Amino acid sequence: MDWLFAPFEVAFVQRALWGGLLVSCVCALAGTWVVVRGMAFLGDAMSHGMLPGVAVAALLGGNLILGAAISCAAMAFGVSMLGRSKRFAPDTAIGLLFVGMLAAGVIIVSRSQSFAVDLTGFLFGDVLAVRSRDLLYLGVALVIALVVAVLGHRAFVASTFDPRKAHTLGLRPKAAQVALIGLVTLAIVASFHVVGTLLVFGLLIAPPAAAMYWSDRIPVVMVVAALIGGVSTAVGLLISWHAQTAAGATIAAVAVGSFFLSAIIAALRDRFGARRMSAASVAALAALPLVGCGSGESVVVEEAPHGFVAGAEEMAEAPRRLIVADAGTGAMRVVDLLTEKVTSIDTGTVKAGSSQPPSAAGEPAPGAIRLAGDGRFGFVSSGGRLSIVDSGAWTVDHGDHRHYYSAPIRAVGSGDTSVGGLSGAGRSSAAPGPSAAPGSSGAAGQSGAVVSAHSDPVVVAVVSDAGETMVFDRAALSEGVAAEPRRIDGIAVPYAERLIVADNAGRVEVRGRDGAAGGVQTATCPDPQGQAVTRRGVVFGCADGAIVVTQRDGSFVTEKIPYPYPAPTADRATAFTHRPGSSTLTALASRHGVWTLDIRKKSWTLTPIAEAVAVNTAGEGSSLLVLTRDGVLHGIDPVSGTETAHLGLIAGPVDGHASIQVDPDRAYINDIRARTIHEIAYNDNLRVARAFPLDIPPSLMVETGL
């Protein structure tokens, strides 16, 4: 029976189930009256009328449920006011408001490019993203709906069957109509997050309509409708889990299917006169999720469900977080981008190094604090020592699907690991130091600073500016243990269950995870600086361009991507930034411009722009995001090099600690003087979506959870 219970052992599916059950109860209370009074068109119109409120709330960075509630309330008020007119039937007013609100929502959406990803969730819901806070809201909505249904029951019944008698009895049918519309509004808003604006109508109408086949008493219909809605939720989640279908749409489809099943059973009952068939059928429908559980034998789950990680909570979406640090004092914070909660963390060993800014050559002062991240852990170096922070957010990519996890934020290990120190290792004093690194912040010369970190499910490789790599056991780090790492002379990056190593002599080698010697590649990489992992392979920056090491048909091959012309030493790419997994990389070309490296096209592009201090991009076809020293954020077309948008973001001048972190939806830029992190909707004309004020200067910043 693992197939039946395994989905519900995952935390976010459990929350989805509880959310669906609560919504089913709310919809049963309101939907029964919608069916009995023939208000289906009103329910459909109001569910579509939510779109403008949701769209405006999303644009302003507000609460989507609040936006939906305001929009529905406006719709309900309009229906109530226009419905009093004697010039036309009430459904005319409903139809006009329906079209008007839907048109307004579409216009708002069409004016913002940032809705390309989010619109599906608005229209069809995201039940798997239900959070504990949402369950609280749904619980409150259910209590309110229950109070309204109980207190207004007599008035609702009387006004439904004889409004004049209801008026004679003093039951105020007009007020009852307003209260009923409010009840429907509450149900639609509560259901929005589960099944979206387009499918909420199915959950509101289908279960009560199906329940009408089994009883003609309104309280019984409500109970049966809630039961059918709950069964539809459980069965829909089960089907969605195994069939990999959209959960909200599957729940709505099962609910509609329950109506047709009820209609067929009722037809058979009427034809064959089976008086007991009704109760038996309802019982069978309610027991549908429990089929096969009546054997009396206890179910023993011997294996953990797919994707299970001990001590972690599986999430429906990536729990993205930012690790930030003050380069002067060593104070650290972790910002949760979903909840906006800021957590202080004390590594115990990160001490104030030097608050002096980097030199003109991009080299930090001795002892300055530096930060690099691998997507979960933050590696903080200071004075040649290393401390590790677990952000508690990470993604496991299985290729065809992903798992997202959240765990407590904590410091890892004792912080006694030394950075650098290999005998004879390190770059020559003539080699220019990198100015940044993927997943790192700030400049890095030969100061014993970490410049990048990369990981796979087994190992984490942390590269220092001394030209060595520290390889940690990832499982041990996950358990809070930072044993002495294995050290490799050269830049090592985990890829395809191997370590790809570029040493200081320019030799590129494929080694085992244990560091055992492997095959040496034919292409060389003189003076390797800067590295990245993409879906197309590992990239190393070289003095004469870049090389890409990739696995094809079980073997490793290396391709060289030379600069389009001899690049001056000062202008070469020494550190790459990119959206995790993207095959389009960016790098600073000193202060004269920015490089774009397209791995797929195997080409470099130099875009001139003066005084660039940070650059990144979301990937192929996306604009380059360039922050200049005057604090202006520029959006630049990567093909033509023309500016598409610009935003005065930071009070300049901006120092060398500037950082741009990019994920699939947003970009994050640190404003050190204002002690703020700006969230930028880069697909919406560089709109500032949110701002995260902090109590420390966010000099260093990396994003995790991706």
Global structural class: alpha+beta
Largest sheet: 5 strands, antiparallel
Strand order of the largest sheet: 10-7-6-5-11
End-to-end Cα distance, whole Å, is 33 Å
Helix count equals 15
- Overall, the morphology is elongated
Percent strand equals 25-35%
Round the Cα radius of gyration to an integer and report it: 30 Å
Determine the oligomeric state from the structure. single chain
In terms of per-residue confidence, which ranges show pLDDT below 50 for 5 or more consecutive residues?
114-118, 284-304, 351-366, 422-445
Average of pLDDT = 79
Overall number of strands: 35
Helix content: 25-40%
Topology readout:
Elements: H1 2-5, H2 11-36, H3 40-49, H4 51-60, H5 64-82, H6 90-110, H7 115-124, H8 132-151, H9 153-161, H10 163-168, H11 173-211, H12 218-243, H13 247-272, H14 277-286, E1 313-315, E2 321-325, E3 332-336, E4 342-345, E5 370-373, E6 377-382, E7 385-390, E8 393-397, E9 402-406, E10 410-418, E11 440-441, E12 450-455, E13 459-464, E14 468-473, H15 474-478, E15 486-489, E16 491-495, E17 498-502, E18 508-511, E19 519-520, E20 531-534, E21 537-542, E22 545-552, E23 555-562, E24 584-589, E25 593-598, E26 603-608, E27 612-617, E28 624-628, E29 632-636, E30 643-648, E31 660-662, E32 667-671, E33 676-681, E34 687-693, E35 700-704
Antiparallel strand pairs: 1-9, 2-3, 2-35, 3-4, 5-6, 5-11, 6-7, 7-10, 8-9, 12-13, 13-14, 14-15, 16-17, 17-18, 18-19, 20-21, 21-22, 22-23, 24-25, 25-26, 27-28, 28-29, 29-30, 31-32, 32-33, 33-34
